[in-house]
Design brief:
The protein has 20 helices and twelve strands. The chain is an alpha/beta fold.
Length: 509
């Protein structure tokens, strides 16, 4: 590690206090509840200085799960054997920037050491019948482990990640640590809740329509969706073999900007000829940015007053930091875009019927293994036909991307809300709600994030606002493809100007 990086680890925002006081660090070793105040890089530094061991950190995380998970239901304790984490912690062979740091993996990633059921009764029954058939890790998991991370749990997701809340029938709802009556968001809701509640400082998430940014927004943590095909092993989310329709990206959620920056540096595909590597972005930049402010959704819908207040406050903060804000309207046909995006989204369910019958038998009733929301999307895709879904998306996404690229020719960043509403109550997007009703709710509430999945542009949710009743509301910042450095540098500035990591929800480990 270079001296510059050591210095940066010591001076970073909310985590400098414990790292700079040996007495408190020693106390943290005796009283592990102190460890919840560290980010992942801070924990890695403690390990290097032999203030704590990887096994002690793993045991501490296990205790935190036992303490708070019964309230928030973020971690799937029956899907993973923690003895595997203990064994890795004892191995003594951990190297890398995150050596010895416990993290968690979302229940949608290929991982041979856990029962990944994707939040679905269908795949839970397949695992029950055949056992875990996964023989190898995804490229992303391999990269995580090469960086020294210890996967210590699996976080909950909705069925197949198909909705913006985490309330699967199979595992039950994940609750928001800021208010247990409210959603933690989705589809990386288990990850966001586990971080917000102090179980781990960093965990994996993925994003096909807002699934990193939405739960980050609703749980008051930091979440970045990278540029399309930025990370190792990317490309699996495309439809019809067209990379331009690859709407899904993997990265993480965290409590500190530097943790996400470091995570990106270890999982990015450094051999992508179209994307020069980002590397480790270690702090704010000097350039003052042109930031375009967008308030209404693509369909012209105004957000909830509290969301509008949060977005305007974020704009004023950026102005105080010296950046230039210019309100704009995006010249995009919102109805057409939403229709095309939902069609592509729904087309991903069309293989489930054949999968169910092949693995569980011809007599399998889909309503017994798939949720009503999933079945509704399946019927929508069947009515349109997969070729129509793909063709519409190809045409519309191309038009929308050209429009957004033109915007970025005269601006550096687009600032908008993440959701139209603050965190809603558990049940509002329950997958068992009648499909037509639920469809309209989702379309109305998820008004900003899918645009950047369609365009392949990086976007982040930054936790800068809390409502009067204590619920987080994030703000979305997006850049043109390859612009992760710009976003992370801005995020460091925002983190320093309005620190969020010291905030603690009522449910915290």
């Amino acid at each position: 590690m270079t001296q510059n990086r050591r210095d940066f680890l010591k001076q970073s925002s909310a985590f400098s206090l414990l790292l700079s006081h040996p007495a408190l660090a020693a106390q943290a070793k005796r009283q592990h509840s102190q460890l919840a105040s560290y980010d992942a890089l801070g924990l890695a530094d403690l390990i290097k200085r032999k203030q704590v061991s990887p096994l002690e950190l793993v045991e501490d995380v296990i205790r935190r799960v036992e303490r708070v998970n019964p309230k928030i239901n973020a971690v799937l304790t029956t899907n993973f054997d923690v003895d595997k984490a203990r064994a890795r912690a004892r191995s003594g062979a951990l190297e890398g920037i995150f050596a010895g740091v416990p993290v968690m993996l979302k229940n949608l990633q290929q991982y041979k050491d856990a029962n990944i059921d994707s939040g679905s009764r269908l795949f839970a029954q397949v695992i029950k019948k055949y056992g875990n058939r996964t023989q190898q890790n995804s490229a992303l998991v391999d990269a995580m482990e090469r960086s020294g991370m210890i996967i210590t749990g699996i976080t909950s997701s909705p069925e197949l990640g198909l909705i913006d809340t985490t309330e699967p029938i199979l595992h039950g709802p994940t609750r928001n640590p800021w208010n247990l009556n409210h959603t933690a968001g989705g589809s990386s809701g288990g990850t966001a809740a586990a971080i917000a509640a102090g179980i781990v400082p960093l965990a994996h998430g993925n994003d096909g329509g807002g699934s990193i940014r939405i739960p980050a927004c609703q749980c008051g943590v930091f979440g970045l969706k990278p540029t399309r095909s930025r990370e190792v092993g990317s490309g699996g989310g495309s439809r019809g073999g067209d990379e331009a329709l690859n709407i899904s990206s993997n990265l993480c959620l965290s409590r500190s900007v530097r943790d996400t920056a470091a995570y990106l540096s270890v999982v990015e595909n450094k051999n992508n000829p179209n994307l020069p590597p980002v590397g480790f972005v270690s702090g704010p930049g000097k350039k003052r940015l042109k930031i375009a402010l967008v308030i209404n959704t693509l369909k012209g819908q105004k957000p909830h007053p509290e969301v509008e207040k949060a977005t305007n406050a974020a704009a004023r903060l950026c102005e105080r930091l010296g950046h230039k804000i210019e309100p704009i309207n995006l010249s995009i046909n919102g109805e057409e875009f939403v229709d095309a995006f939902v069609g592509l989204w729904a087309s991903g369910t069309l293989g489930l019927e054949a999968t169910a019958k092949q693995l569980l038998g011809e007599g399998t009733k889909l309503e017994d293994v798939l949720e009503p929301w999933t079945l509704g999307l399946m019927e929508l895709a069947k009515r349109r036909g997969v070729s129509d879904c793909v063709q519409r998306a190809t045409t519309v996404f191309g038009q929308v991307t050209a429009t957004i690229e033109k915007v970025f020719q005269s601006t550096d960043v687009i600032l908008s809300p993440v959701m139209t509403t603050p965190p809603y109550k558990i049940g509002w997007h329950d997958p068992r709600v009648e499909f037509k009703t639920l469809y309209q709710r989702v379309i109305d509430d998820v008004g900003y994030t899918p645009l950047h999945n369609a365009c392949g542009t990086p976007a982040m949710s930054v936790p800068l606002h809390w409502t009067a009743d204590g619920l987080p509301v994030g703000s979305q910042f997006a850049a043109w493809r390859g612009g992760e450095s710009t976003l992370l540098q801005l995020a460091y500035e925002l983190e320093t100007a309005r620190p969020w990591a010291r905030r603690r929800p009522p449910v915290f480990a």
